[in-house]
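Minutes, project huddle
Topic: does the predicted pose make sense with pyridoxal-5'-phosphate bound?
PN asked that the exact inputs be recorded in the minutes so nobody has to dig through chat later. Recorded below.
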Amino acid sequence: MSDVGAFIRFVRELYGQREGAIALHAPTMGQREKAWVNQAIDSTFVSSVGAFVTEFEQRIAAFVGARHAVATVNGTAALHVALRVAGVQPGDLVLTQALTFVATCNAITYCGAEPVFVDVEAPTLGMDPEALAAWLADHAVLAAGQCVERQSGRVIRACVPMHTLGHPARVDAIAQLCGRWGLALIEDAAEALGSYRAGRHVGTFGRLGAFSFNGNKVITTGGGGAVVTDDEALARWARHLTTTAKRVHPWLFDHDEVGYNYRMPNLNAAFGIAQWERLPALLSSKRQVADAYRQWADRHGWCFVQEPSDTRSNYWLNAFCLPDLQARDAFLQATNAAGVMTRPLWTPMHRLPIYQRCRRGDLPVTEKLSDTVVNVPSSALTQGDE
Ligand SMILES: *Cc1c(COP(=O)(O)O)cnc(C)c1O
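Predicted holo structure (tokens), as shared on screen:
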């Protein structure tokens, strides 16, 4: 890794920043956002009721090609609600990947369910359909149309693959397996707005998908998220749950189940509409950044993580795969010391004390990738008011 110095100079040139810190992923914003947020203020509807939330939801649904979208306070809340309306109950098992941000597992835990980890695959960084098939063949049986763990009899209710760094997982193959085993497929597409597999937007392959609009994602609402689905009844229930399960009535406070205060405020939705208008420019700028990294990697013999075949990735966070843990740590040390922000992947969930006792298949690829993959600065090159 003797080229780290050259890499640092390359990133500084790419972002036209000779000095100062270069962020991993900075949001792009400007006058547009101010104008929309001002409209929300002028309307006096700044909280969890307002026209911009509905408009924001319509834009999400239209963009990803889903019938319905329900906007939430953040992506974690979106995942939680998606799992609830998919029928995940206390005591259930939910298949997912250990190579993910902790929110995926936390949302499963909020339902009183337990995550089960299967391995990921190197080309997509997402759940490996073969590993999923193998775990199910070894541990599951179908009993009266329900998937249960053979040993304990516990219901395996759902499967939550994650589109890592925006690269689409093989959700078409995973969807087939879920169909065969009677599992609800819920995609954690938090990082993957603008990513497609076989021409279809991710998050729409299963029963529900969840997106995040946190400050570090492709577009942001400050904090925010959304559930998408084609199922009208599920969308209605999700919206009900996010608004304290209050029955529609002009004045009565009638709540027919324990709901959540998870609805996205109008102020955030206004900001989000302005961001939405930037999305095409942001996505193409991010592809330009990815192209530059790929070309640099080709010239220097580095391994750049590219979009898998038959997909279009949003390249949310660009990544390189380094030879080993030692090379990774040397890279992280040198780049961060030089003000070029880089990060390892997440500590895999089965190595966190809170999830280390969860069931899991063999995770060799998860371990290898978490030891060797690094994320590098990936903000769009377009400036706020261009
Ligand atoms: C960002 C993210 C979330 C959660 O989003 P928040 O809006 O931060 O709650 C969930 N899963 C993954 C994989 C993420 O990257």
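Observations noted during the meeting:
- The radius of gyration is 21 Å.
- The longest strand covers residues 68-72.
No decisions taken; revisit at the next huddle.
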